[in-house]
Amino acid sequence: MTKTIKSIFFIAIIMLLAACGTPNNINYMQDIKANDIINITPKDIRLLPGDKISIFVKSKDDVLTEHFNISLPNMQKILSYTIDPNGEVDFPMVGKIKLSDKTRSEAAETIKSKLVEEYGVKDAIMTLDFSNLKVSVLGEVNKPGSISIDKDNINILEALSMAGDMTIYGKRQDIMVVRDNGKQKETYIVDITSAKEAMSSPAFYLKQNDIVYVPANKTRQRQSTTNGNNLQSTSFWISIASLITTIAIVVFK
Fold it and tell me: By mean pLDDT, which of 17-21, 93-97, 219-223 is the weakest?
């Protein structure tokens, strides 16, 4: 009888441990230590048709630059330019300029070169900002939704952070990134429990319009079923803990 009770006790302990998440399933970047070096080159976002940008030109020739800096009526905000299907923007006094597939700094340099070529504005200072670039983060995160991009590059860890981080139920090994490459959609799986695997992924640095989806782990999946809800309920685990305590008293007294 005592052996049977002991067996029940240890089975209950195993059930309790199995239901708990382990650090291996939760912690990020488990394969790096202090002072480890991982070489990685940031991938700046490249402009695509449909992207909107704002362009501000500053020069000593204020009269000339006023023609380039068009603002909306009754507003101080600079007018945004949409890159057309041919990858071009129609810039005042310069005309069509090809900007698609260029980084922000490359696009600014292209416009500056045009101003030098057309008007001899050699002292122009270009400021080019993204107006509508974003990525979407969905699934097991605390604040799902769209995230605006206001800098040259953004990686998946930054995007997750801006979405309030993953919940405890997010599956860290199988984060999906869906990317629109024009005529087709590409999907990538990123495992952020491994820094080396995550940072070597083509999807570690995100592009505009990427969709990041964090799937639910098995615990959350069980909760989504009727039996799972019963299994994960507070009263269930109180009962289990009470049972284990009672058995322990009987076995070891």
Answer: 17-21
* Euclidean distance between CA atoms 46 and 44, whole angstroms: 6
What interhelical angle do 234-252 and 2-19 show, nearest 10? 150
Secondary structure tally for the chain: helices H, strands E: 9, 10
3-state secondary structure of 136: strand
Instruction: Indicate whether 78 pLDDT > 90.
Output: no
CA angle 60, 65, 68 (to 5 degrees): 160
For 133-218, give the CATH class.
alpha beta
Provide the 10 A C-beta neighbour count for residue 150.
11
pLDDT at position 59 over 90: no
Question: Does pLDDT of 162 surpass 80?
Answer: yes
Report the top-level CATH class of 52-130: alpha beta
- Let me know: does 90 contact 81? Beta carbons within 8 Å: yes
Residues 186-220 as b or e (16 or more Cβ within 10 Å = b): eebebebbbbebbbebebbbbbbbbbbbbbbbebb
**Sheet with 125-130, side-by-side order of all strands:** 80-82, 52-58, 125-130
Q: Kindly report the number of other CB atoms within 10 A of residue 245's CB atom.
A: 10
Question: From the CB of residue 155, how many other CB atoms can be counted at a distance below 10 Å?
Answer: 18
pLDDT band at 107 (very low <50, low <70, confident <90, very high): very high
Domain definitions of the chain by residue range: 52-130, 133-218
